[in-house]
Amino acid sequence: MGGRLKALTLVLVALTLAGCDRSRPSSQPAQPSPPSVQYIPRADNGPARPFAEAVRVGNMLYLSGQLGTDSTGKVVPGGIEAETRQTLDNIKAALERNGSSMDNVVKCTAMLADMSEWPAMNQVYATYFTKHFPARSAFGTTGLALGARMELECMATVE
After folding, report:
1. pTM (2 decimals)?
2. How far apart are CA 91 and CA 85, in angstroms?
3. How far apart are the first and last CA of the chain?
C-alpha cells in the first residue's frame, strides 16, 4: 500500500503543478481597458452623408476628410487657394468643436484633383500650422466629391 500511496501522491502533485503557470507572478497587474470610442456626428445640417465628422479613440481624434465647402455645402469659388483656405477653416472649426486645435494635429493626408496645384495649396496650408508641421501624405486623384480641387483629412490629439 505504501508504494501505491506514494505513486498516487506523486500523480496529484504533478497534476497540481501542471495547472500552475510559474512563469507569471500570482498577482498579475490588471490589463488596461481598451480606449473608449466616440462617434461624433456632423455638426452641419447639410444633406445626409454616411460618415461621422470625427471619431475619438482615447485621446486621438480622427477627422473625416474635409472639402472647401461653405455653410451651404457648396465648394467655394476662387480656385485651389480659396478651397484650401476654406478646407483648413473647416478643419480648424471641427477640431475646436471637439476639444482640439491646429497645434494638436499630428498627421494629415491631402488629396488633390490636379497635382500641378500642389505649390499653391502648400502655400496656404503652411500658414495654418504655426507651432509645428504635422506629418503628411499626399496623392493625386482622378476626381473628388462635389468637384472639389482638394480634400484634407487630419488626425489630432485631444487634451
Report:
1. 0.75
2. 10
3. 72
**Which amino acid is it at 100?**
S
Cα 83 from chain centre: 23
> Could you give the CA distance from residue 82 to residue 100 in angstroms, rounded to a whole number?
24
Extents of the domains making up the chain: 36-157
Cell numbers that stand for 92 in this block: 480648424
DSSP string over the chain: -HHHHHHHHHHHHHHHHHT--TTS-SSPPPPPPPPPEEEE--SS-SS--SS-SEEEETTEEEEPPEESB-TTSPBPSSHHHHHHHHHHHHHHHHHHHTT--GGGEEEEEEEES-GGGHHHHHHHHHTT-SS-PPEEEEEE-S--GGG-SEEEEEEEE--
Indicate the fold that domain 36-157 takes in CATH: 60s Ribosomal Protein L30; Chain: A; (3.30.1330)
Span 81-125, pLDDT tens digits: 999 999 999 999 999 999 999 999 999 999 999 999 999 999 999
